[in-house]
Structure formats: structure tokens, C-alpha cells
Design brief:
This protein has helices spanning 24-31, 87-94, 104-119, 138-144, 155-165, and strands at residues 2-9, 12-19, 50-53, 56-59, 72-74. A hairpin with a 2-residue loop joins β3 (50-53) and β4 (56-59). It is built from 5 helices and 5 strands, in the order ββαβββαααα. It folds into 2 domains: 2-78, Ubiquitin-like (UB roll); 87-165, DNA polymerase, domain 1 (Orthogonal Bundle), CATH 1.10.150. It is an alpha+beta fold. A 5-stranded mixed sheet has the order 2-1-5-3-4, sandwiched between helices. The chain is 30% helix and 16% strand. The termini are far apart.
């Protein structure tokens, strides 16, 4: 069975007819032509499909498209504003936090989500004091980004890039 949905993707209102079993990832890539989120494992284990869904990071391969009718989606392509890269995108460039680039859009969206979670004061598994604002340490960034895998092993530069974008020294 098909259903018509509407989404705001990277600031542009879009409509699409999707099979009710389609994932948000497949709707973005196959129906709307947005190739930014990548299809990696298709099981929610690699993070290549990470997007910002209504402002929070989400694995688009695990989300049914029809369940997110009227949602606002931001992909890595939609983060730049006014010709300027998002601070996370700039930090990834500055610190060579990518190699082949396949996981990079998901890494960048996840990093934006991580920084927002830290800004909100949300603790993680490695937060020492659950009542205190989390510090953007290497351990904190690594824990929060652990759902995003990089086959090339660019982690040594991804963590510092996230910290730089978050203003940590």
C-alpha cells in the first residue's frame, strides 16, 4: 500500500508517495533524490544513515517514512547556511576527520546532535556526574559518537573535530 507524505528536507518542503513499509532512508534517497544519508548496514548498526529528525539525531534506516509525515529533516547537505559551512563541517575539514567520505554525512549529523545533547546537559554513559553539565572530553565525544562507524579509521581526527566544533580546547 502506498501513502503520500510531506517532509521538509534541508529547508525545502517536499511531498512523496512511498510504500508504507519504506524507511525514511529509502524515501530520502529513492523518492526525493537526497543521497547525503548513506545506506550502510540497513540495520541501525553503522550510523551512515544518521540525519537530524526534528532536531535530534536519528538513524533513518530504522524509521518508517509514514511515521514521520510532516517531519523536518536535516541532512549534512542542509547544515551550511548563507554560503558558510556549519562549524562541525568546518572542523571536519580543518582536522581531516574523514578519508573515503562514505560515513562522513552521518558522522557530521551525529556530531551536530552530540553537541546539542551536551548543550542541553544530557549525560552519557561516561559522564562522571549525572547532575553536572557534561564536559566535551575525548571520552565523552567517543562514547556519544560510538554509534557511527568509520571503515577507514578516521576516529583519531573525528573526536578532535567534534571537540573543536563544540568549542573545547
Amino acid at each position: 500500500m502506498d501513502a503520500e507524505i510531506s517532509l521538509t528536507v534541508d529547508g525545502v518542503h517536499r511531498r512523496a508517495v512511498v510504500d508504507t513499509r519504506s524507511t525514511l532512508l529509502d524515501a530520502l534517497r529513492e523518492r526525493l533524490g537526497n543521497a547525503s544519508p548513506k545506506k550502510g548496514c540497513d540495520h541501525g548498526q553503522c550510523g551512515a544513515c544518521t540525519i537530524l529528525l526534528d532536531g535530534e539525531r536519528a538513524l533513518s534506516c530504522l524509521a518508517l517514512a509514514v511515521a514521520h509525515d510532516s517531519a523536518e529533516i536535516t541532512t549534512a547537505d542542509g547544515l551550511a547556511s548563507g554560503g558558510e559551512l556549519h562549524p562541525v563541517q568546518q572542523a571536519f575539514l580543518d582536522l581531516d576527520a574523514f578519508q573515503c567520505g562514505y560515513c562522513t554525512p552521518g558522522q557530521i549529523c551525529s556530531a551536530v546532535g552530540v553537541l546539542e545533547e551536551v548543550r542541553r546537559g544530557w549525560p552519557s554513559h561516561v559522564s562522571a556526574d549525572l547532575a553536572a553539565d557534561p564536559e566535551l572530553t575525548d571520552a565523552e565525544v567517543s562514547e556519544r559518537m560510538s554509534g557511527n562507524l568509520c571503515r577507514c579509521g578516521a576516529y583519531a581526527n573525528i573526536t578532535p573535530a567534534v571537540r573543536q566544533a563544540g568549542g573545547a580546547r
